[in-house]
Amino acid sequence: MSDRPAMTVPIARTSLLEDEIQSVLGPLRSGWLVQGPQVRDFEEKWSAFTGAAHSIAVTSCTTALHLSLAALDFGPGDEAIVPAFTWIATANVVEHLGGTVVFCDIDPLTFNLDLKDLARKLTPRTRAILPVHLFGLPAEMDGVNALAKERGIAVVEDAACGFGARYHGRHVGTLGDTGCFSFHPRKAITTGEGGMITTNDADLAAKLRRLRDHGAAMSDLQRHLGARPYLLADHPDAGYNQRMTDIQAALGAAQMARAADIVTERQRLARIYDDAFASVPWLRTPPRPAGMEHGYQSYACWYEPEAITVESIPRVNEKRNAWMDRLQQAGVSTRPATHAVHMLSFYRNKYQLSPTDFPQAWAANDCSISLPLFHGMTEAEQGYVIEQVFLNRP
Ligand SMILES: Cc1ncc(COP(=O)(O)O)c(C=O)c1O
To answer: Whose CA is nearest to atom 16 of ligand 1?
Structure first.
């Protein structure tokens, strides 16, 4: 008898249609490979979908966050507040610019930042807040903006997972000074690597466009389309090279034709999980707060939420890991929802932090679990995951 599982279901799977795959040939054949007409088209489609006034394509969400803070003149001596439970990149960009990371804890119901703890972390040196719309659930943006506005603090939304997420009808990424999206393959729209910045501020958009392109006052495309393509642009800023290629943009733009369908499908899959686990006390599925539309970049749950206390975290963690191990053996990939950045050695050592400094982020690090969810998931695959979740629980 074989030990091979009946089926294997990955945590995520890239799902590209044939015409989307073919779309990358256009720029390859045209010879215009970087930040040309395809990038412009992708940006326009992104603005149309999100309702942002301006979209600026870059090389990743990490560079989008970095460029946003740089454009807002964030630098040495400045503090930025970052939720302790997020991908490490949200904090790293603060370090890259010589700033100080100030963590705040999360709300265990939503995995997003805890407004009360955020308010406690404000100091006269706070220059930026980076709310994260974790896993596709919008953060409490009215509260964040109220705290920020009265103090003149910049708000850079980490919307890496935020595609399709709406806050009182408005797409995330359009609520702060800038919004930053990721096109990494685990995201709903992918360009391999890639990112997008959204903003409603025209001056900021112009600065972001310069900074992504070595600080140039005019892009190569604008120069080539202009009256004197043979003269080089001025560089008013010492910028970076964070330009997206036209090959990536063609792939991204092609997927935008079914952007709304992708969101609807992910939400439909989430509803099936919600219903399957509705009466299970040992698995808390993602909440659906009023006024918020979840985009479901991933389906992040709590394991044994009722049992979690500061004392019991190690025991629940052990059980969760044993369960993940059994699910892996059964062919079902799972992951902790994400990591608690204050527990990673760079931040733990630099800022002398311990897990208990942000107890909710610590609990989420040790007791969360994401189940497979991706558009293109079959009924058989999702049925298998649900069956195995029940069968393999320790
Ligand atoms: C919350 C969050 N922020 C930032 C990033 C970084 O995105 P990228 O890989 O596009 O740089 C990720 C990536 O998964 C993320 O989940």
So the answer is: 87
Share in percent of the chain as helix, strand, coil (round to 5): 40, 15, 40
Ligand 1 centre and the CA of 242: distance in Å?
A: 15
pLDDT tens digits for the chain (394 residues)? 457 899 999 999 999 999 999 999 999 999 999 999 999 999 999 999 999 999 999 999 999 999 999 999 999 999 999 999 999 999 999 999 999 999 999 999 999 999 999 999 999 999 999 999 999 999 999 999 999 999 999 999 999 999 999 999 999 999 999 999 999 999 999 999 999 999 999 999 999 999 999 999 999 999 999 999 999 999 999 999 999 999 999 999 999 999 999 999 999 999 999 999 999 999 999 999 999 999 999 999 999 998 999 999 999 999 999 999 999 999 999 999 999 999 999 999 999 999 999 999 999 999 999 999 999 999 999 999 999 999 998 7
Residue 187 alpha carbon, nearest atom of ligand 1: 14
**Which part of the chain is CATH 3.90.1150.10?**
259-391
The residue to which tokens 């709903």 are assigned:
188
CATH annotation of 259-391: 3.90.1150.10
- CB of 68 sitting under 6 A from ligand 1: no
* Ligand 1 in reach of 137 Cβ (< 6 A): no
- Residue ranges, CATH 3.40.640.10, the chain: 18-258
DSSP secondary structure string, 269-321?
HHHHHHHHTTT-TTEEPPP--TTEE---SSEEEEESGGG--TTTHHHHHHHHH
- Topology at the third CATH level for domain 18-258: Aspartate Aminotransferase; domain 2 (3.40.640)
